[in-house]
Amino acid sequence: MVSLGRSARLIRSGLGTSRGGLVVLGAVLGVVAVVTSDLGAMVVGVISVIALATVMLLVIGRRRTPKGKPEHSPGAIAGPAAGMDTSLETAIRSSRQRLAGVAAALGLEPPRNRAGPPSAQPHAIRPLITVVVPVHNDEKYIEAALQSIKLQSYPHWECIIVDDASDDASVQLIESAVGSDARFRLIRHEVNQGPGAARNTGLAEARGSHLAFLDADDLLLRESLSDRVQAISERQPDPFLAGSFCAVRFGPEDVILDDLPDRRHVTQPDFVDFVSASGECPFTMIAPLVSTEVVRKAGGFDESMRSGGVDWDLWYRILRNGWVFVPSRSLGAVYRQRGGGITRGKPAAHTEAAARLILAAYRNADPAILSIPSPYPMPDPLPDYQARLTIAERAIRFASMALIDGDRPGMRSTLAVLESGSWYLLDRHLDLPSLVTRGAARVLGVRPKHLDGLEDELAPFVVEVETAVRRVTG
User: Fold this and answer.
1) What is the DSSP letter of 450?
2) CB–CB of 330/246 below 8 Å?
3) Whole-model pTM?
4) What's the per-residue H, E or C state across 154-210?
């Protein structure tokens, strides 16, 4: 008799792993069982047992074979994954050779060390900072706000407190908290004029080169001023720099200083300018450390805006004139969410002011706000600048493709669509090396990430494209 194992192998060989084959076999055996004699039924039974054993062997075999890994007989050729690795290595090696060949043919040289003279390098600054604190009936909060200023690790500051005709115990508490500390000055309004006017009073009296604003019900973390000064130092000299900004946490009304850390690292945008703000308010009143000169040239705060948005209006005017703010990368202040605050107390008026400022960003700038001397005013509507960036991104990518194909004239003609005078905008917003890499990847037939190790080979192309872009847009 044929052994059970051999029978199973024969059936498995004939039917493979096809479930449809087993179903057909079962149907045939059923017909045979009906039309045959008892002896035939016995034969059918034996065959059925063999078929059942075959199914069991198939199931066991599948369980023993690792999922996604087909069985291979000795000496079988490796699967496609190994071939893909080899192919990728070949493509990268070919890309390196092609880049080197094109660079040599075009006479492109490796970039030189382009570091400027020592005087042009970032340097530490330790300016006097004026912290302006407007107060109006804030007896519940003012002592903690002033204490948070006293605890600052950065030592070079003065604080101007402007009481806007409070009729509670705010003034007495201020005088008690300040005592004989000469760093604090208290100025009083006889008549309530609003928060914008109170801040303008502080602005007029400021002796510091930079301003920080702290509302009487908010708090600074210990490293707040230090971190914002450091952020400015790291970007010096930058003719477009208006100041820096910290992250602000929104906290409950009853938050206390003891609950706050000295510093907490946060992720923030690399910069804020008119385009990146996208028409929105870029940060709260207490976030920036801003040049006193820039704020004065911008005209200070609009004192007519007494229902909110007065800070947004100032930041909008500064950004519209082409200035930029850089982040401190740390949490610097806590904004107490009071039930009686302007934003929550007058939501309709605040929303109306916000709508006006958003619409202004999408229109030509009012000529009156562009009278401030600035290196790169931005009078056109926000979408115009966004469109220029989109066009430039594509043009630079395709110009890079032309250059890597050895077509320098093609690169130059492709960049002709860029707008003269837009270098500042492109340099700030576009990652030019990344765009060149993307163009190279398309020409070489690989993914951009596969060129991560070819920075040296790509560097001459980056320099050549940047030089050409600057020639058109500078």
Assistant:
1) G
2) yes
3) 0.78
4) CCCEEEEEEEECCCCCHHHHHHHHHCCCCCEEEEEECCCCCHHHHHHHHHHHCCCCE
